[in-house]
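Second attempt. The first submission of DUF4012 domain-containing protein had a stray character pasted in from the spreadsheet, which I only caught after the job came back as garbage. Lesson logged: always re-copy from the clean sequence file. Corrected sequence (366 aa) follows.
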Amino acid sequence: MFKLSKSKNLNFAEIYHKAQSVYDEIPLVKRTRRRRAIFKFLKYFSIFILGVFAILAITFGSNVLSLMKVYQSSISGKYYLEQAIEKTKSQEFEQAISFSSQSTEDFNQAIDAFDEFKNGFLSSNVPYFNSQFNNVSYLLNSAEILSRSVNQGSAFANELQNLLDDNKKLTYSLFNPEEKKRIIGRLYQSAPELNGMQANLELALMDLEKIQYNGILLPAKGKIEDVKTKVRTAADLLKQAIPMSQVLPALAGYPKPSTFLVLLQNSDELRPTGGFLGTYGILETEAGDINRFETHDIYHMDMPVKDLVNLDPPAPIKTYLNKKWYMRDANWSPDWPSAARQIEWFYKTENNLLIRSTILMVSLTA
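This time the job returned cleanly.
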């Protein structure tokens, strides 16, 4: 097996290497070393995998926590928003304020947490994720705005309720004169707040309109569309309420007493504004109360001055009705503001009474 040199000096290094080579050829030894090599590879591969997982955990751990916070805060915000709306319906406005404030805070936390999550590298590199994340952002933003709107509305209603004595509900027929004055006065000053609420609802509606149901929000499409319809209805109602908040105090005689000329038209006799001015009335209001309302036949005004008013009428009136123009035919223009100005001129001329405005009522026959 070994070929020893005939030299007097033995080469032990050569002998060792040859012996080692023979030893390595033994099958059992070969298998043992192969297993050791495999175990060594698996050891270092496992360390590598653990390192990769550690890096991923460090990278995505904060994102996972952010998503959990988004979910928890959103669920909490939704609950408190629903509670606030229910309390508003039952006129428990202080609780509605508390619930809507908590809802606003929860949705703000959800928005902040989701912004942190969106700043991760996945969202910045994958367009599909970007579009889905934007949809969630639109939904969270609209929810936060709605919470603030409910809070504003509850605070406004609570302020109105606090103006009443004995903690009454907001039922106008139960108000005493002083309460009516306080309520109408607050309504008179409400335009900026109502404009703010209406603007917030429009912003929420804009975010809801941007949502695309092509991904994770598809299962919620029905509920989101229902919310969108309700928000649009509320925004439209506020849009109508804002001018009414300025008109109603004037009609109610606030901030100073008001006198109105009320006209009753008979649609059996056609005129450009809808009917013949057969009856007129005087309405006086002050701080929500009607101080005077009486009506008269319009001929009671025209007849005493028939020889005192000399005004040429429009050609058709002169041809088919009268040679002179009186208040009963003053509604000749189909444009009501123009006709109202003409009627007021006749009334002041014939009666010499200062009025604030003119109200037209049409009597319709079956």
